[in-house]
Amino acid sequence: MSLASAGGGARGGAPRGAPRGGAPRGGAPRGGAPRGAPCGGALGGARRSSLHVRPHRCSSSSQPAASSQPPPPLSTEPTPMAARVLDGVIGATSTPVGMYVEPGDRPSFVYRLHPITKQVWALALVLVPAFFPQHGSLGEPWGVLPFPRIIAMGSVLLATAVSLPPRLYVPQLRRLLLLSMLAFFAVAFVSDAVSPNVYVPFAPPDGVPLASLGASPSTIASPDGDNAPFCYVMLEAGIVKVTRKSLKLAISAASIALTVLLASNLCLTTTTPEASASALRGVLAPVRRILPWRPARQFVDDVCLGLLLALRFIALVFEEANALALGLATKDVPWRSLGPMRAIGVGAGVLGKLVRNLLGHAEKIAVAMHDRGFRGASTFHAYTPGGAKDLRWGVGDAVALAVLAGAVYLATYARSHALV
Amino acid sequence: MAMAARTQQQQQQQQQQQQQRSVVPRVFCRTPRAPRRKRALRRQAASADMSDDVSAMQQPAISLTHLQVTRGQPGSTDAKHVLVDVNLEVGRGEIHALLGPNGCGKSTLLDAVRGKIKPTRGEVHVRVPTDKIAFVPQNPDHNVVMPTAGADVAFALSARGERDEDDGHVMKAVDYALERVRLEGFACAPTGTLSGGQRQRVAVAGTLVADAEVLLLDELTSYLDPEDAEAVLDAVRASCRGPRAAAAIWVTHRLDELLKCDRATYIDDGKVLLSGSGTYVRERILGWQEEVAKSR
Ligand SMILES: Nc1ncnc2c1ncn2[C@@H]1O[C@H](COP(=O)(O)OP(=O)(O)O)[C@@H](O)[C@H]1O
Ligand SMILES: [Mg+2]
């Protein structure tokens, strides 16, 4: 990813801020790449350097200075790890995850659901698969696949693909896949490599095979008897040992990670944060009313406002990380001569600066809130820009919740029958 | 905002009617007339009341007299007089431009007006309630509070607990304010994806919604292109000329904007070098610049 394009995409965010009603001007493209106005952070200093001789030119002459950084030197040598990590950070932060995306002409069903329905579904997609019976299938050819988890992941993927344009979700998906792959390999290599010291504190009931209690057996009897023996240990190299069980666990872990990330991303991209917070407030209102204790009621208000501000903060984190990474990239740090330890030191320094900057931002936002009339969470009532229709319960919600109830019933039914 | 403006107009009319009623009491029709001397006294009192009211309106909304502000620990070596003997008056309905090189103390002056810093000498009088003072800082990132543009514009109303019940007055106010700053259709845009100039305009829209009576706008146009800058300045002017008769201090570096400002003050190194009507100050600064160019 080239630096110049990363800088433009970071600030402009042209595709996302697209106007609702197709405004002819004042639109997002104008606010895009070339005007990438510096906002504090590493590049902010360029703004102050202008002289006051010709006031007209002050603003126009100082701004390109920030965005016209020299391109990174092209070299045929392999890029050092640190530089690649830096590039990755710049790329990752220039497509922020979890920001509201305005629907196109034909909003998908996800947009029309009530925020609470979406949140309940997101939670259920992670929790419900855990209720389906999991054991006793490792010996079968497809036994390594945790089907309920994969179905949950598939349905989020489908919902994402239906509701968001590909140019938005494909890059996001790539990064999320990377994260879940990390989970996959970590679990696959480690989970069964060291035999766990599991002591069964009580004698298992008759008829329950030991394998289902978590201890890893060296062989598993094939369901078809002796004629189709299969290998329990799939790969063994040094301390790395991949078995069917660890493979299944790894697939589970990766799909859980992907489901969590995708589901929360979908919730955030199809609901304005204000609608989420207002919906939460609406749900908690009865609770708040019956609470006898004033601090407890205040706590409910604080939670709702806190959610709103946290969602504002996500964008800030991305912005600040991007600014810092870009600043570091333009400094042309000689990574190769630094060596890994000092490179890590530089990284830690930048991380510290990130945290400091973010805390500074938080403080400034708090001051701005006070200046703009904020007098406490209990009197604050967030305005939902999408209007009241964002918070209306509809037929879609009834259907979605009914489907969910059906799935939960199915899970409990299957479980009880498998155990009997 | 249209709604808010209208209701305020109605309120003002009602107040005026009440005043008129008190000036010419209805009891006159029914009771025998009061003795002439008493009537004269009454009339006098009424007119005095009226003139008091008028003079309260005519008094400048902001007045700074012999203002001196010191930054840094007083007495220490880094103590510095940022503003020295500054006199400034901004009347209601007036838009006052403030110019000067970087670091001359413009933002400090606004801080003093907002009451964020105490003057070491001189006086600051702001004749509106504190919650009617709106401020847009130089860096727009520090002003955006909410995750979505529309909600950020509505922040002042949200903080008061106002919400759209049936009438949708908040929505109308937000849409109107966004239109004034040429951001129509941006109500649902995440603030994280806005550019610096767009954020600044969102901040201005927020002050338009808040029915502020004193507007303090710090170098907005350094992030805006000329067209947007003009739109924002027009919106501020409309706020000043409207029924609320807001007083505005507009910090800028662009001389062309002075043509739209009623008065202007040029500060250098904490001192007022030049003050007068917008056109006059503009001519003088252009003259200086010509002289500087010639002497080179
Ligand atoms: N918090 C502070 N502490 C000490 N000095 C300050 C502080 N803020 C500003 N100054 C100084 O005050 C002077 C005026 O600053 P400022 O009002 O921000 O100028 P500008 O006209 O560019 O807005 C500058 O010389 C600056 O260094
Ligand atoms: Mg300033």
From TrEMBL, chain A:
Organism: Pycnococcus provasolii
One GO CC term, this protein: plasma membrane
Protein name from the UniProt record: Energy-coupling factor transporter transmembrane protein EcfT
InterPro entries, per the entry: ABC/ECF_trnsptr_transmembrane
Localization per record: Membrane
Membrane topology: Multi-pass membrane protein
Regions of compositional bias (Low complexity) in chain numbering: 59-68
Region ranges (Disordered): 1-80
Domain of life of the source: Eukaryota
Keywords, ordered alphabetically: Membrane, Transmembrane, Transmembrane helix
Biased composition (Gly residues): 1-44
UniProtKB/TrEMBL annotation, chain B:
Cytoplasm recorded as keyword: no
Region: Disordered, residue numbers: 1-54
Keywords for the protein's UniProt record, in alphabetical order: ATP-binding, Nucleotide-binding, Transport
Composition bias type Basic residues, residue spans: 33-42
Low complexity: bias regions: 8-20, 43-54
Coiled-coil zones: none
GO cellular component, one term: chloroplast envelope
Molecular function GO labels: ATP binding; ATP hydrolysis activity
Any matching Pfam family: ABC_tran
SUPFAM superfamilies (alphabetical): P-loop containing nucleoside triphosphate hydrolases
InterPro entries referenced in this protein's UniProt entry, alphabetically: AAA+_ATPase (IPR003593), ABC_transporter-like_ATP-bd (IPR003439), ABC_transporter-like_CS (IPR017871), ABC_transpr_CbiO/EcfA_su (IPR015856), Molybdenum_import_ModC (IPR050334), P-loop_NTPase (IPR027417)
Every ABC transporter domain range: 62-294
One example of a Gene Ontology biological process annotation: transmembrane transport
Transmembrane segments: none
Protein name: ABC transporter domain-containing protein
